[in-house]
Amino acid sequence: YVRFSNYLQKWSQRLHRKLLCSRCLDLEQGQLVPVVKEVMAEGEVGFGGKVVPADVLAQQLRTISKRRCLVVYIVDVLDFNGSFIRKIRQIVGKNPVILVGTKIDLLPPKTKLELVEKWLLYILRKKKLRVVNVKLVSNETGKHINHAVNAIIEARSGMDVFVVGAANAGKSRFITRLLDRLE
């Protein structure tokens, strides 16, 4: 999460490319990030003793469903099931969702991206998640980032944009690429 005031401050100093979300900032400064309590075994201690109860995390995320916004949902195409948040619709409410699949640079070279998009749409239908668009990108190379940016700009209609996704799905790298394109 990046506070808008922090973003504006960095933007005014032309340092927005070096802006990190709070999780990445903690990691960069050598601090261990908290874990969600329900993912640990009984009696186990989280990173550095920091534990966030799942209900607290859910409450923080529920604020998204109470706002009118566009949600950009980041998933790892190489680990879709591992990066898919089962309760995503509860988190985003009735807000429109654009699904962005990351790490396409790690797919076999002759992979037809149109088929990957169709596969994602098929899986999303089975999981009963409607999306307004599906885009595939490489945060590493920047491939197809412009397609995702254009889809976001088109769907935004003046709404705030929230980027959500599981850990290591590529949210921070995507946001950095997004901000580079918006300059």
TrEMBL record:
GO terms for molecular function: GTPase activity. InterPro entries: NOA1, P-loop_NTPase. This is NOA1 protein. It comes from Symbiodinium necroappetens.
